[in-house]
Amino acid sequence: MTDNQNRPVFIDYLAFSAPISAMKDVHTFQEKGFEWRKFQFLPSYKHYQNSASYAVSSSYNNLPETSNQGMTEQQQEQFLTDLYSCYFSRLRRWISSVFGLVVGAPRGKGGHVYQESASLYSDEGGSDNMGTLYWGGNNDTFYVQISGLGCTHVFNGITAQKIHKWFQHLDITCLKRLDLATDDYDGIFTCKAAELAFEDDAFYCGKGPKPDKDLSLKTSAKGIIKKEMLSVGSRQSRIYWRIYNKAAEQKVTGIWYRSEAELKGISIDALLNIAGIYTGLCAYAAQINPCKPRLIPKLLGRKAIDSIEANVRWLRKQASANLAKVFHFFNGDINAVLSMIIREEHISDMNLKFDIPPIYQEFLNDKLQTNRCPF
Hints:
Helix content is 33%, strand content 22%. The chain is an alpha+beta fold. This is Replication initiation factor domain-containing protein.
């Protein structure tokens, strides 16, 4: 996937995860020419009420419960097993139709807290590994990793904006990892140039501590460069830069340097303008591509937290001292304090809430640790 013809920005790695139950909505995607009938039909629990009982595995206990009042326990388990099988069939078909990648045979090993995995291959044939699909366990989710080679294949057949539309439809809001890169064939944005830029704080985003750098150089006895790379930040950082000699890595002649930013845990909205996101990362990136810089879009969950924090910050600034006086007057009795400062009609009004989608309530409770709050 490229964007802008002057040292274009392209996606060199993509990773995301979602509940496998998201596949229940895959056939309802709205687009002219979309063929929904290629996806396996979802099983109906009513069909299982009069069916024979089967002995089934109890591996999938976390799938949503259904209204199955007239079904035996074994029939219910059979239905959930078949439902999971249908979801997985749809997942394979979705990866093939959207990304142009074929899910290979199970490898008999998992990873990233998943029980099983399979390699991804081009739907045009060939044995090149283009990524990995993980599934099984981990709250009944799946995890897709698409490598640089895989991204080259994927974005030859689909745009990042189209993938964003699919993610929106399936309620996938976050990318686990997104690598954005540019290639330089003129010898301008080399490792040495990046090192000079680092000394000028061109990689500093303006928030938090300044990142560290690490320079790696490997040469042969004849002085031929085997490896040349400057990294800024760390693999644990939200933004991790790698500027390296791609020609040396690929063992080809000529000038070829790649400047690559590894982004983790970001909104899918970054797919709508990858060049702007890239140039907005830091001053170094802004030199490479002329696209207008854009800030990394916030996840909706983060926006929700910010809205709460803003209200709490205002309350703390305006009334903290007086609230503390009331607290001390009642000897730390929280219920008495709340009954004094909050009107009864406000407590009884269940519609008096923050403007936050219900889907993020559990996420916010975890982030804000409301379960530890004494009231």
